[in-house]
Amino acid sequence: MDNDVAAIDQSVPLFGARKKARELAVEVSDLRTQLERLGGLSVIELEEKSRQLGQEVDEQREVLEADRQKIGAQLEQLRRDVVETEETALLQEAGVYEYRHPLDDSVQYKAALDGVREQIKAMTKKDGGAVRGNTNWQVNGSAAQGRKMVRDFSKLMLRAYNAEADNLVRGMKPYKLDSSIQRLTKVAATIAKLGTTMDIHISGQYHELREYELQLTADYREKQAEEKEREQEEKARLKEEREAQKEMERERARLEKEQAHYLNSIEQLLAKGDAEAVARLEGELKDIERAIEDVDYRAANIKAGYVYVISNIGSFGEGVVKVGLTRRLDPQIRVRELGDASVPFRFDTHALVFSEDAVGLEAQLHKLMEDKRVNRVNLRREFFYATPEEVKTHLVAVAGDILTFTDTPEAAEFHQSRQFAEKLGLAEG
Fold first, then answer.
1. pLDDT > 70? residue 429
2. Given strand 383-385, what is the order of strands in its sheet?
């Protein structure tokens, strides 16, 4: 190696290049040494060395694979042991609620629950069969003391189980049913594990009864919520109907008063012999009589009314519309009511279409836009993912010519509020 370094020192220029050359010479020398060592081995020895190294690699690979499988099995067991209770995750996973035991109304669910709870009370009494234990257990050679110990521990275990079950029932929400059943099953398994020595465990019949209670409770809560919503919607519908009826009564009273005024005027003009004025007033009187007939028709025909198409981009964003109907004589009154304090901005009206069968017209529109519903669970919510232009196309198809239709919402309050926020440097949302 020294000869190599010396030779390089003589052949390489100065100014630091020789230092780099020395380092390279050292590396070359090391490589030569390793080659000479390998060259001293026979081909057979080299093959044996390669085989040994390959075997060591395979052995390490097998160890790593065994560790991976072991860790995977432990992770899977931990996942099975964990019961998901976070409400956000449960809500995301919950689909449309399916009744486990469909009954007609909440009263029937309440009656069924009362019956189940009576059975639970009966089974939790002494020798009721809620919890089981080893009857041959002895303490200090005494079977009586052994039975007492098993009874005491059984009561303690049953109390813990019932406390968890009662807590799950009290906090039951329909979307939490599956996780609640899993949790109660884990509690029963834990009690069986802790009571292994004396064979203490919750009986299968009692556990099934408490699961049944959870299912009925979830069904009952869901049915109550449905009935409450239907009741609220029915109240809103009746209120709307009453308001429409009051409007018609007020309008008829106004028209009748105007009609009486015209009749008196005509009578006075006849007495004066002013035939021209009488003819003019009689023409106006016929218009009033037709208006009275229209009001009477609207009052008698519950299907007649206005189908409206409205939007509220400040509240629901662009591309969302509401398609509904109203029997009000002035449909804009209903639109203004919908934009009350429950939403931050008023609704914009895109179309108001009168129809003698507004109920049928609305149903046709909803059917054409079924795939664009916002709420697919409660079909009484009449919001759709659609632009006004899309609704206009459907409306023309089922209603024919439309006198007026506004494609672009004004959204005055929303735009003014956004401009005001920009001036103040406030961030949106």
1. no
2. 348-355, 305-311, 320-326, 383-385
